[in-house]
Amino acid sequence: MRANGAPDVLPHFEHRAFDVLVADLSPAAATCFVADFISMLPSRLERITEALAAGKDRDEMITALASLGVSASMTGATRLALTVDTALADLSRAAHPSTLLPVRLRREAQQFAYAYASFQKASSLAA
Questions:
Q1: What is the H or E stretch that residue 81 is in?
Q2: 16: number of Cβ within 10 Å
Q3: SUPFAM superfamilies of this UniProt entry (predicted)?
Q4: pLDDT digit of tens for each residue in the chain (127 aa)?
Q5: CA–CA separation, 82 vs 69, rounded Å?
Q6: Side-chain half-sphere exposure of 30, counting CA atoms within 13 A
Q7: C-alpha neighbours within 13 Å on the C-beta side of residue 105
Q8: How far apart are CA 68 and CA 83, in angstroms?
Q9: Fewer CB atoms near the end CB (10 Å): N or C, the chain?
């Protein structure tokens, strides 16, 4: 078990979520969706970091976290989604998320991006 509650058995990238996107959209559209998600991660994480640092804008933090969590789930970023869910649960109990939350989110985002890139590379080699 990790410090943020995420079990080590969860993958950084859950390809079945990507398969659902492919089935719902198309391979090209799903790939673009995930690429856009990854390219937007820095600004989305900064939004959460700023809301946490301000310590006042709880609604902004909830909105930013919820948006990130939904997109993370859709793209297969399972550990990132679980980290977001943990932070949202803390907020629902009126607790303030840990100041380490931005570090955890960035780490999980980087690991997802790396795992997705590895998946894409393996997929292109297999094709």
A1: helix 78-92
A2: 9
A3: Histidine-containing phosphotransfer domain, HPT domain
A4: 555 555 567 889 999 999 999 999 999 999 999 999 999 999 999 999 988 887 767 888 899 999 999 999 999 999 999 999 999 998 888 767 777 889 999 999 999 999 999 999 998 877 6
A5: 8
A6: 18
A7: 28
A8: 10
A9: C
- CA–CA gap between residue 47 and residue 13 (Å, rounded): 23
Q: How far apart are CA 3 and CA 17, in angstroms?
A: 25
For residue 112, give Cα distances in angstroms to 17, 29, 84, 99: 13, 19, 14, 21
Contact between residue 104 and residue 4 where contact means Cβ atoms under 8 Å apart = yes
Q: What is the pTM of this model?
A: 0.86
With tokens 């310590």, the residue in question is: 55
